[in-house]
Batch of 3 targets.
Target 1
Amino acid sequence: MDSSKVMILSDFDRTLAPEENGFIIEDYVVKEINSYSEFNLFFVVTGRERKNVSGVKRKSVFELSNGLVPTGWILENGSMILYRGEHIMVSKQWLQDMDEISRRFSQEGIDHALGETIMFADNTLDKRELLEKIVKDVSQGRGKVEWNTDDAMVMASNVDKGRGIRDLVDMMQFKGIKVGIGDAQNDIPLFQNVDVKVAMGNALPEIKKMADIVMKGGPGEGVLEVLDMIREGRLLDIVKQHYI
């Protein structure tokens, strides 16, 4: 397979970066992906923010990526693309909604953090009903909540990882094969917008069920297995079944 005609779109948390390592990518994984990205397309597609604006301090994706230099980034769950410039996909009204939602969360004692276009409320699954009600009441349909295991991401209703991928593909006028790699609920829109779906060995059961391939390896290791499959042409049979 000509790897120059393949676009890899990989999630970050628990796909590239192991939770037990504080979501920092291992050095050897960074080295392999940087080498691959010199001549091939590798994009990180993540809910993580470029920078923490306010609230509970979270490390940004760049603080955790350990020198990773992919072709580009789709950040904040599809709200922002960094590829040959900066592209923001949310309205000014949504940014105002975020401020009011943040105020209401604080009133209710819901710890949270703000990125530039997205909000995070980690470990809040037990407060799901209240959290989703606040978002609905304030945004009047302009916002939504997506869950990543027990963590809530509050974002504009018209964005997700799939939207980010579609906009990127249009921007690049890419006509090749899209390979998506993920592990959790917010990767479902990612999977719905690629040609070959790859689940990590540590992925949730519903993600493994959707996948065309389930890797043996977990975070980082599984992604490197995918790179080997592409280099060695072993991905071709999967592509024939799902793309050609």
Target 2
Amino acid sequence: MTDPQTPPASGGRSAAAGNSSGVIATGDRTRIEQRTLVLPPDALKAAIHDEEIARLSNLPAPDSRVFKGRDDALAVLRELPSAGTGIVAQSVRGMGGIGKSTLVLHHAHTYLAAGHGPVWWIEASSSAAVTAGLASLATALNPVHAALPLDEAAAWAVTWLQGRTGWLLIFDNAEEPADLRPYLGRLSTGQVLVTTRRDLPWQDLGTPVRLETLTPETALAVLQEITERHSDSDAAALAELTNELGHLPLALQQAGAYLAQTRTSASNYLAQLRADPAGVLAATAPGDPHQRTIAQLWSVTLSALNSADPHAVDLLRVLAYSAPEPLPRRVLANALHTHQAVDHALGVLAAYSMITLTDATVTVHRLVQAVLRITTPKPIAPPQPGAIRRLLRRSRPTPPPHPSESALKLLHEAMPSSSPDDVEGWPEWQRLLPHLQTVGRHQGGTRLVSQLATVLGQAGFYLLARGQADQALPLDKRALEITEAALGPDHPDTALRLSSLGRTLSDLGRYAEALPLEARALQIAEVALGPDHPTTASRLNNLASTFSDLGRHAEALPLAQRALEITEGALGPDHPDTALRLGNLGRTLSALGRDAEALLLEERALQISEAALGPDHPDTALRLSNLASTLSALGRHAEALPLAQRALQITEAALGPDHPDTAVRLGNLGRTLSALGSHAEALPLDERALQISEATLGPDHPDTALRLGNLASTLNALERHAEAFPLEERALQIAEAALGPDHPTTANRLGNLAFTLSALGRDAEALPLEERALQISEATLGPDHPDTALRLGNLGRTLSALGSHAEALSLEERALQISEATLGPDHPDTALRLGNLASTLNALERHAEALPLARRALQIAEAALGPDYAETTVRLNDPTPIRAPLEDTTRDEP
């Protein structure tokens, strides 16, 4: 797509002119979709007037006045159809330095000058960058969005764009199709351009505009324009130089800027390039000739930089191991001998167009970083113990740190002092996250093992706290590998990494994989630190939680008890960690049906958390939620309700509306409302909880199964059984796959599916599910557990529905006996058992025996739930099995 008759463009971000309105998307397989979005009046408002919106843009200024050789490509962009045709997304593809961004920037400036707008430029190298770019548009339209979480502001921007035409949106440097997939199909009322160097099957993008290198004639014209050297004597040398540069626009711009600034002849520049090819062509360099020639260019540029300020080159090599996203300048404060030296070096780099510099951030282009990493010698591997002794005998000086090690050290020092789960520090952690991840990927034989493991582990911990366990997993795995290799399998730091990895696996629902890691972490801590160390208590706590996740509550109980005893003895009765241990022990006791014992622990845990951490801390919300669950288990739903409401309010404010913990709080509140008969109020909470869990944890996570089950229970209570049925089927399928066929949660799923089948009149299909659910509960929880009573009662009701009243009678009598013994004579579940038993006796024509049971059931229900709800709860002749509401349980942080 070049035109030798037209002057070519030069520069990585040069701008060209064009006339087209709409959104420009660069990438393959552009698909244009037209949708109509119906919004209520004034649902979306910008804080600026329409005429200002039409002029709104964040386009960078062109970095070169020369733009040639792209007329054909510009014509394609100008001819993009307007919104409403079904095709609005277009990609521009090519290698790094080919001029993709320059082409689109040139078109965008012309588009804006023609009176179209807004035009918004978004760095799309990661999903986080895309979210931030959309959020910045929202803030530009209305500054109030600066206070919102980035994902909320981004969502607002997308919705606003859907309700308006005539805009142009540019996703620049897109790397992964998945980063744009959530947006492209929805952004159909304007035009989108995507630039990408990745030749992948991008959905929602049609036939791409593929940019190739410039023709020799156009490349020569570019250099002549930039250097203002048009004489015949210069032409031959410049032509030879363009051939050496591979006619790559970015390389031409860099070379032309160097020649113009230094007044160096093209012949001298060419001689330097040819004299140092090996220095820029490392053995690991890809075979792409274009990348090879741009590597040569930067070798020369680095030589010039070295003459101007050697520290600038040192600093640039360090920056090569950060991410191609804005790096806070404070990270580089100690990169050189003085702060002034750092500022001066950054100024030199900016003058040579090697970085983008603001008062707060430093950004290096990804291609510059790639070339620098290729041309930097590999780090020296740390010597083995025997080699250390030999080096000492030879008295050799310690080699200087490799740039990757310097970058690691700087980022390690720059990490916030606050814990990654402290929400107040999250903005700073988010700014550093891409750089922490990048520096970790480029550490080979580093001597800074401890710092590397810490950087990886803390980045993983931050992602885990944000509910992104899938992204935390590879970081935790690598941190463990590094630590174990460097410090040995029995070091306390190895135990820490094992426990962190176990926690992440548990958050992903992979409890069976987490268990041996947690067990080994405990073993190491007990040997290395002693049986009464607070860290040992933490390892006990985590192992107990994993046992509970696996449904092995009896094995978890002594571990949780011992963890509490150690923590209270070492840290005191009012320490936040003591509250955490109390809460975990309480949840274990509740799982064992010992809710009355759990209640006292949960109340004390809440009291400690509020006093130590404050009323609005996420841990306080956790304590409120657990206490509410325990109260509900005791049938005290009215007392649980305000606690569950407050827990949700705190969690949403602290962690955001889309965090997995917010889904837990929504689910708990929904269950409490349903227990009080407010099923219509519970329904939207259950729906939202499911939506969050699926988005953050995935469709196959055990928590997603829990949300499906809760939503189905609410639909059943609303007599919407046909809608509940597929949800219950899917919930059972997930639970069996994730937790196994014999897990207590699988029993819950079987029982709930059986209930829905019975509600649909399919009792014969429900019967084997109820029988299997009872078998699992008795085997895992014991014959006297409240859940076993629930299974007995439900199986009895199904048998009665099938006419087997005599067989049902013994099951319901046993269910009542268990409920009275474990929950007490006045618990709502005891009322359910009485009511079900009375129904069976009536079916057997034993009405005189049934009547006092029915009266007592109604009396208990009225006292516990109120007269209105009691009448609908205790329906003496209803063949439908009555079951207790499901609860969400939360797992405390390690």
Target 3
Amino acid sequence: MIVVEDLHRHFGGFRAVDGASLTIKTGSITGLIGPNGAGKTTLFNVIAGRLPPTSGRVLMDGQDITGLPPHVLFHKGLLRTFQIAHEFGSMTVRENLMMVPPNQAGETIWNSWFARGRVARQEAEIRKKADEVLEFLTIGHLADQKASMISGGQKKLLELGRTMMVDAKIVFLDEVGAGVNRTLLNTIGDAIVRLNKERGYTFCVIEHDMDFIGRLCDPVIVMAEGHVLAEGTVEQVKSDERVIEAYLGTGLKNKAKAEGFHV
């Protein structure tokens, strides 16, 4: 699905991504972990077209997508969410979903004047799909709420719902658990697993909650200092000496082993 080859992203003398290479396989839920400053979000931003790379390549299904802008990648089925949800607060939860599908007939003045029936039919179809998405995510009761009034976890579910409005192929989730209570995090996890198993979505997930990563993700890729440090199951990377050192420092290796490794 996604192949990253020797990717670099520099900001002046700072190498945020420094020769990262990795593969995200079709149908997987891949975890991406690493200490703060490891380059995870910058890597996401380069893959998703929000930042151009300094060098290196990104391939999607064998096609070079390096540097393509987000709106082009959107039409190819590559989407990403953000650590801080980007909802339209003055719109309802349902309206936030209904505005996602591209090329809607009602977007042109001509159709608004002379093709009202077509506009109304399409809007009804989109509304129906939005309601189906909200039910899938178990937040149908929030459909008419202003998006600014729902909780942080519910906003994360809404962002996930946006990806469902366009049948995404691969979704990059940036710290989906940040600021989310355990109950809602479990709901988000359930939705991700169902989208993966029932609808064939591929996911790549940045997350610091290792219980969440362990439940969802295989493989887990570890980044440190801008490059890939290790890859394997969650248990394999948690016991990797290089990973323990990257998180905790050489002097704490033995203590980390004795007490259990948490990130």
